[in-house]
């Protein structure tokens, strides 16, 4: 039986650049919460915060090995989603470096025959991750 992990990530900066945070909500295919992470990352940009969310999700996935065969990432940033898919080029050196770290994490999971996909979703479908961003920024 196929086991799926669903990952919602978001990032935001108030001011861009400004105080920034990311949110990660991870659940199984039945919607059971596995992790809810919100973390402030200091002064940064929206795009760096979005990438930090994906990094935070991979850190959790690698620290909490499970027996999933597929991991579905859902992001409301079209830019970051398409950069992760390789559709858009990454020009910012900081984002390039973050993408390289994500690629290493992807390889570790793919070496265990885990399929990883990235999907863009409307902001309205990413409320849990967005709420974690705002909670981290408010604290």
Tell me what the structure shows.
The longest helix has 18 residues, at 46-63. The protein has one domain: Ribonuclease H-like superfamily/Ribonuclease H (Nucleotidyltransferase, domain 5, 2-Layer Sandwich). Helix 1 runs parallel beside helix 3 (93-110). Helices cover 40% and strands 32% of the residues. The chain has helices at 46-63, 78-84, 93-110, 127-138; strands at residues 4-13, 18-28, 33-44, 70-75, 115-120. The chain has a five-stranded mixed beta sheet with strand order 3-2-1-4-5. By secondary structure, it is α/β, with parallel strands linked by helices. Strand 1 and strand 2 form a beta hairpin. The chain is globular and about 40 Å long.
What layout of secondary structure does this protein have?
Blueprint: E1 4-13, E2 18-28, E3 33-44, H1 46-63, E4 70-75, H2 78-84, H3 93-110, E5 115-120, H4 127-138
Parallel strand pairs: 1-4, 4-5
Antiparallel strand pairs: 1-2, 2-3
Helix pairs in contact: 1-3
H and E string:
EEEHEHHEH
User: CATH architecture, please?
Assistant: 2-Layer Sandwich
What's the number of structural domains?
Answer: 1
Based on Cα principal axes, name the global outline.
Answer: globular
Radius of gyration, in Å, reads 14 Å
CATH superfamily: Ribonuclease H-like superfamily/Ribonuclease H
The CATH class is: Alpha Beta
The low-pLDDT segments are: none
If you consult CATH, what is the topology? Nucleotidyltransferase, domain 5
Biggest sheet features: 5 strands, mixed
- Structural class by sheet pairing and helices: alpha/beta
Name the average pLDDT: 95
The strand count comes to 5
- What proportion strand? 25-35%
Task: Give the spatial strand order of the biggest sheet.
Answer: 3-2-1-4-5
Number of helical segments? 4
Helix content: 25-40%
Separation of termini?
A: 41 Å
